[in-house]
Amino acid sequence: MLFTPGRRRNLLSAALIALVGCAAAPAPAWAAPIPSAQIDFGGMMRTYRLHLPAGGPPSGLVVNLHAAGATGADQAALTHYDAVADAYGFAVVYPDGIDYSWADGRGASVPDRQGVDDVGFISTLVDRLAAENGIPRGRVFATGLSAGGFMANRLACDRADLFAAIAPVAGTLGTNVGCNPSRPVSVLATYGTADPVVPFAGGPMSGRGGGSTVVSGPAMVDRWRQIDGCPAPSDEVLPSTGDGTETHRIASDGCAGGTSVVFMRVDGGGHTWPGVPEILPVQSVGAASRAFDASDASGRFFASHGR
């Protein structure tokens, strides 16, 4: 997304007020959220926010990755994922990227140009949290918006042994980034056809850190279908909500290893997280779909696509 961290946090303040009602009831002391925690990776202190469910050990772990120009706390507020994680018994972690972005391989961010190993950082963080909280190793998932969506795809490409399923929103891969996962990964991908930031048809784009050339949304989905050996998909149109968009749920189930690839194609949709209020003008990021909630949709998808 194309905005400064300060501007985004100011714009998020109103959303934070609205999202207070989505917060879960106070959890027991052992499951209290950690506002800010640190882990030493490669001699650098990296920060993250962790939320644990009440009532027992987590049934899985969701890594929720912020957009460029944002923080993990911003992503938690935008996606109301603490409440979603509670509903499915998941732990959810919101890491912070260096310079408010990720080294997703495109070469368009400061951490990419500095040689930061975000695949290694996030994988190490997952290992630590899984060991400390008794999280099943076959139930680790990733989602993210924009730069976070690019990073989620890269994690699945590079660490398919670790991530059972991903749910990228408004982020594909750079055309220069290889994707040869060691095993099938389930994918729930959401892309808007009118995205003014990450072009739905692929090609050149300008981000916070600079320019890159990206894979189109349909091509990214096709790549995952090929990787997972999927059958031909079905196409379901979700009921209209009168928001000016139309969402097609294009699903391939019964892929290799019991995986699925689902494409939420939001016709007329922009660079947004479906189901939450736009925090920037529609003229800047395009329309958000109200036909589904991307947070709850990914929670349900993850719950049924562990290993």
Automatic annotation (TrEMBL):
Keyword entries, A-Z: Hydrolase, Signal
Annotated InterPro entries: AB_hydrolase_fold (IPR029058), Esterase_phb (IPR010126), Plant_Biomass_Hydrol_Est (IPR050955), TAT_signal (IPR006311)
Keyword check for Hydrolase: yes
Keyword Oxidoreductase attributed: no
One Pfam family from the record: Esterase_PHB
Superkingdom to which the source organism belongs: Bacteria
Cleaved signal peptide residues: 1-31
Source organism (scientific name): Mycolicibacterium lutetiense
Name assigned to this protein: Polyhydroxybutyrate depolymerase
